[in-house]
UniProtKB/TrEMBL annotation:
It comes from Oerskovia enterophila. Residues 24-98 form the Transcription regulator PadR N-terminal domain. This is Transcriptional regulator PadR-like family protein. Gene3D superfamilies: Winged helix-like DNA-binding domain superfamily/Winged helix DNA-binding domain. Pfam families: PadR (PF03551). InterPro entries: Metal_resp_DNA-bind_regulator, Tscrpt_reg_PadR_N, WH-like_DNA-bd_sf, WH_DNA-bd_sf.
Amino acid sequence: MVDDAASGDAATIRRRANALALAVLAQLAERPMHPYEIARTLKDRRKDESVRLNYGSLYSVITALVRDGLIEPAGTEQDGNRPQRTVYRLTGAGRTEVDDWMRALLGAPVKEYPQFMAALSFLPLLAPDDVADLLRTRLVALRVKVRRIEDDLEDLEHTDGARGETSELAVAGSRYELAILRAELAYADVLVRRIADGTLGGIEAWRSAVR
């Protein structure tokens, strides 16, 4: 019994390290689907902006979810001369898992390790002027990303507004990404300015160390 519990805990940890598994469970919570429909729906709803999606990984995740008893085959579908596709549905255990997983993600902040934060931790490896130049390049890219998301959100609002629908709930993830990018943009902009004008604490020692 102890071994079974430990094995189950390990499977849960592995599964929850992959947000694509959550995306699959979320789609099947709506209705049974085959893998291609899952992928198409995620792309149509732009969920691939928040979850890394490729077909190889998708099929691996589906296999693992079946093995763990969270989803199960519900039949097959065939469109014309195309090969049959297996349709999957959520099991009772799957519904419990997606509920528990969502509660854990929303209710408790988890320590993450962004690569940019790692780079900021080791700034003294490069000369201050080089860092400032690199950050300026990053700022350009960040502004492009921010503008793209703003344009996408505006397009969605106009489209949904014309249909009398609200898109705010559907784009919560995009709005979060936009807020994070704006915060990073503001921080990097200030950092560049303080490096350039010499007001960053410790910059003289930094300059001396890399000469």
